[in-house]
Amino acid sequence: MKFRAQPASERVIDEELEHHILERIDALIEQGYPPAAARREAERRFGDTKAVRRALQSIRAATARELRWSDYVRAFFRDLRHGVRLLRKEPGVAVAVILTIGVGVGANAALFSVTDAVLMRPLPYEERDRLVSLDAFYVDQDWKINRWTAERGNAVAEGLSDHAAVVRFAQRSFVRGDVTEPHRVMGFGVSGDWLTALGATPALGRGFGAADGADEAPLVVVLGHELWQQRFGGDLDILGKSVQLDQNQFEVVGVMPAGFKFPPISSSEAWVPLRADGTVDGNRAEPFVSLVANIGGASSDAIFERANAVALGVSEEIGSGSVEVRGEPLDSFRANRDVRRALLVLSGVGIGMLMIAIINAANLMLVRADTRRSEMELRLALGASRARLVRQACAEFLVWAGAGALLAIGIAYLAVDLLASQLPAEVTWFLTSQVVVDHRVLGFALATMMLVALGAGVLPSLRATRSLVSTGRTTAGSPTSRLRHGLLIAQVAITVALLSGAALMMQSFVRLTAVDPGFNTAGLTQFSMELPVDSYPEPEAQRAFFDELKERLQAQPGVVRVSLANGVPPRSGFSFGVSPEAEGGAPKELPGVFLPNATVGTDYFAALQTPVVEGRSFLPQDAAEPDKVIIDRSLAQFLWGVESGVVGRRFRLNEGEPWLTVVGLIDDLKLMGQDDRDGEFELFYPLQADAQLRYMSMLVRSEGAPGAAVASIRAEVRSLDPTLPIDDLTTLTSAMADANDKPRFYLRAMGLFAVLAVTLAVIGTYGTLAFMVRTRYRELGVRAALGAQTGALRWMVLRRGLALTTTGIALGLFGGYAVGRGAGSLLYGVEPLEPIASAAAVACMLLCAAAASWFPAVQATRADPNDVLRAD
Amino acid sequence: MKVVQGTLDYLVLKTLSVEGVKHGFEILEWILATTDGALEIEEGSLYPALHRMEKRGLIEATWGVSPKGRRAKYYGLSALGERELVAEEKRWASCVEAVGKIAVAGPGS
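ok -> structure tokens follow
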């Protein structure tokens, strides 16, 4: 190794020149020169070797200096073409990598975009950082609410008007009755220049401002994007058209952009001016208002101080209890605990999935780099420059990563739409902006993936090109193989965690849907109606309407029973903050949040086919006795510790409230749906003859096709009053199923992503294990040649694969437990570590590992040892 | 006859165009053989020429193993080199023509 100490470039120059001399010497010897003379002659003919060498070196140096940008670009594209050619030639690994990146990054970005839209994306108002919500704090009761009685709220707003732009708003549900299918519009009356204060602009039209709130101003409305799309077909000429809301005509003056809501957490669909007289239509003043203030450059403390001074004055003026103003940034509340938790779990799934994908891509590329190692070494030995080889490796992986990125972007956009359309109502309620692909998330996931892929693809080639001497063929102890083992274990662990999480969700969902609701859902149809106070002002008129409707429905063929009720499962009324007290006992804290209750007509339990097991059902005479109640066994158990013999006993909901007498006992009924953990006791009051029946539900039990009742209900309501909308007209079966749409969504999302993750992991694990076995072909061949038993060899390979997998599984079970703990209240009736769920996950992974080790091992041991030995 | 600087480039391009891929010694031997030894080339000077042409992208180099089992740097014509060769040949043809005209010119013509 004469030129060892020299840099590579000089070595190459010398080698070329030396080669020439050697060739010349050969030629001269052939011509008859004696060897010693031949060398002298060859050198003479060559001329000044040193001068030539210097010339060559300076050319080389100049080449390196003058490599221009365009040369790099040209070389890059040449390498890129090389990458594409390789991809076409060996699509297997490449397709796996591209799919991995696409699915892993795409699905993750979509999942995270939902979390982002609910929890993180800034509110869609330009002025969001200056907006505060002014809440009423009732000092005596230690209770805060973001709603003021109109008198107080208006006074506070008035008193602050010199210091901040205060927007008053009031929820006002309208009925749009002049269309074939009357429907409800969730409207908000908003005061003053609300759009300016919020910093929002309509997508269409001008919106409205302070001038439109004058008492004599014509009625105008701004539509939400969704309402405009769904009920007005996205009519671009909507501006200036008239819409009837309740009894009044409103002119459409604007359409808000998609995703706009105000207040941010609401189901707001339309906005109208809240006028100076406190009404939205000149008829009745809205009884409550909420306040949001744009404090501009002022400090919020100063504003709150001022607001409190105002509130104090107002309290003295009104002469009722003391109310303080408590202010908070408008954006301080995003979602309740359950939704937050669900989204965090789903994001965790997304991250797990991304990690699997990254590990997978890295592993596949390491495998790839290893298989190309000998090719690299050969090319390096033949004089290819190291930079060139590394560049080529980069280019190859860039082609893969680029294709994967494109796929990821496509999948992200598709999956986001899919997810957004499947979101349960509870989550959409908390959405503060549209669910769109979050580019930061997508970009971040892609960048991470690229970095890792590039690292895994290029680093080995860097190492491979570092030395000319082949490092031999065993891979058991090489750094890449150790890295591969680590990655494999991590991958198995994450997969098992995700799998057992998904299995938990599944088990929980199965248990939830198997819960007996306590009544016979089949054959039941329900609907709800709100009677507008303008057309049905008195309880008599309301009762007349519902009595007539009930009679007409009962006369329909197939209808067995009809009952009027305020509260039909799975959506009942409820009390909260109550501490029930049995007569002679002490008040007890409720275990759940709510005490579900319903005010029901005489036929209610008959319609539900829920037997009254003790005492009696409600009778017509109970319509004048509001203290007669029916309870279920769980409430009896809670109050008296017995499940029977409670008829005639008395209890009350809170100290100081009237005593209630139990007249009937029923088995457990799930008024709040099958998941009743927030309120498991049921309490039923008799519907009173003189009650306001503004918002009521009806239960219709019928025989025959469930849809038949739906049609006749619609027809009968229309013939009674064509302007009334019917709410939630549906069969009880589907209503109960809808009540489970939240766990169903989580199950589907989790299940889908777990399946994707497992698919990726299986591909990755199989690929890696199979590759590891293949690197031992030679060793297996030697062992077989030395007389090792085939079975023993196969077992040896299998054992190694299983050992790695088992380590991963053990770690994964811890992870699965963590997922279960994190999911907590999302799970129904299952423990964080359920044997069935965990066993399923473990079995799945073990099978995969066994197959991935076994089949290549069989292949290796079946081959003729001679062939295997000769193969490399 | 000494080879003029610049002419050597043309000779190399031509050689590679006719013979395909060759290493330095082969290129030299082919030129000498084809011209029946009429051209005198200082052997060492071939290499700076080859390297300059490689740098200009006229020829491409790759390492290979010669029939004698020695590692050798092989040169081949690039697409750019082919275009260059065509242009060179045109220049040579017109040059030869011009010189030829002078050669046959007699007094008074």
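The first strand of chain A starts at residue 131 and ends at 138.
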